[in-house]
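Tokens for chain A. Residues wanted.
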């Protein structure tokens, strides 16, 4: 493919037939031209890559060398892609028609915009709160504690911006890495995704670093994707709980400077306790969905 307007990097780990459906939806959205699609596989053994190759032999598939995590695989795909705009996607989503045009229109019109996230819907049509703020400490603790037993609480509402109109575009602190369109020049300026994260919070970190570098992050509801939450991670729910909390501590270590670094010790203790509580909730409610990718 010569000079595509945008590329899509799909990070796959044992997504089964969902991977092929995802790629099909990406290629079908020609509203901003046919995208280049690059799939990076983290060592899947479920036949998902064989099925994809049979359906779309023209799509480039790269191996990451093992299960290296989402951020590291995303960097592999971004390096291989060619367009100035690169979308990074989970393999368990379907991209709605017109999404490419809606997102690229924003990026074309607003040169200081580095990252754009579309509206994300769950399979039943429920909107997923994919555009959020980096929470203040009180909201982070409140969401992390009260949210275990009561999903509707004031801390979570502020953090997830649940009172914002989801039908209107707006600037936000960060958007979900399940589907995010990125300006390559901005991504290069901050040295890409931080591959020190194995899973979770890498999207918060990336958007936070883009903001610190002077770029904007926006939510664009003119684009839409449907996401099957946790399709690739549901087989290892307890490991994912551990990785989620480890990533939260890593982000705190990067965010807190000066005297605030003394908070890392109690934060580590708090997150250790919350890890245990989350595992207990998972054990009591075994049919509960895997922890949400973005907290």
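Reply:
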């Amino acid at each position: 493919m010569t000079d595509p307007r945008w590329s899509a990097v799909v990070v796959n780990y044992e997504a089964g037939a969902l991977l092929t459906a995802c790629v099909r939806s990406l290629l079908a959205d020609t509203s901003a031209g046919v995208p280049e699609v690059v799939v990076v596989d983290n060592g899947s053994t479920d036949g998902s890559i064989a099925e994809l190759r049979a359906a779309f032999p023209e799509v480039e598939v790269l191996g990451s060398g093992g299960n290296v995590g989402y951020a590291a695989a995303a960097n592999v795909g971004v390096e291989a892609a060619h367009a100035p705009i690169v979308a990074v996607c989970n393999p368990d989503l379907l991209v709605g028609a017109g999404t490419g045009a809606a997102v690229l229109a924003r990026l074309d019109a607003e040169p200081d915009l580095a990252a754009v996230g579309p509206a994300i819907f769950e399979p039943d049509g429920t909107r997923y709160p994919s555009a959020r703020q980096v929470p203040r400490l009180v909201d982070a603790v409140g969401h992390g504690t009260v949210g275990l037993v009561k999903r509707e609480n004031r801390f979570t509402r502020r953090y997830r911006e649940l009172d914002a109109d989801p039908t209107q575009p707006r600037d936000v602190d960060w958007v979900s890495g399940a589907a995010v369109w990125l300006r390559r020049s901005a991504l290069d300026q901050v040295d890409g995704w931080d591959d020190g994260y194995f899973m979770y919070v890498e999207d918060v970190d990336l958007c936070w670093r883009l903001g610190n570098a002077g770029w904007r992050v926006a939510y664009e509801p003119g684009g839409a994707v449907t996401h099957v939450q946790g399709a690739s991670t549901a087989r290892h729910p307890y490991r994912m709980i551990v990785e989620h909390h480890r990533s939260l501590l890593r982000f705190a270590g990067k965010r807190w400077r000066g005297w605030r670094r003394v908070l890392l010790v109690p934060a580590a203790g708090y997150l250790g306790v919350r890890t245990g509580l989350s595992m207990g909730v998972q054990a009591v409610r075994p049919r509960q969905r895997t922890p949400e990718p973005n907290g």
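Residues 264-284 form the longest helix (21 residues). The CA atoms of residues 121 and 199 lie 21 Å apart.
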